[in-house]
Amino acid sequence: MIILAGAILGKLAGGFFGARLARIGRPILVGSILVPRGEFSLVLAKTGVDAGLVGALLYPVAGLAVVVTALASPLIDRLTRPANRLEGN
Predict the structure, then answer these.
(1) Are 46 and 61 in contact (CB under 8 A)?
(2) Which of 12, 14, 32, 85 has the greatest CB tally within 10 Å of its CB?
(3) Separation between Cα atoms, residue 32 and residue 82, nearest integer Å
(4) pLDDT tens digits, residue range 5-64?
């Protein structure tokens, strides 16, 4: 749970603060767009396991984090979009 929370909150915070620094409107929206992006985590985890830098348990944990963040994306999108938009837009 800690890794999943860190993955989601880290992506939200990174996108939020990056958008703030770049002066992009709606920084929370930018952060929420980054949440499901995690496929590269699998590549890094596999490389780390193959090189013996991390334990073999990291790879399935990274896979779980990718799946959960991808599934959480619609909920996070719904929470960060403006409430006054019309459905279907």
Answers:
(1) no
(2) 32
(3) 13
(4) 887 888 888 888 989 999 988 888 888 887 777 778 788 888 999 999 989 988 888 888
Query: Which candidate, 33, 44, 43, 45, places its Cα nearest to that of 69?
Result: 33
pLDDT reported for residue 85: 55
Tokens, residue 71: 């599934």
Residue in the block written with tokens 């939200």: 12
Q: Which residue carries 């770049």 as its tokens?
A: 22
Rg (the chain; Cα; Å) = 15
- C-alpha–C-alpha distance, residues 7 and 73, integer Å: 12
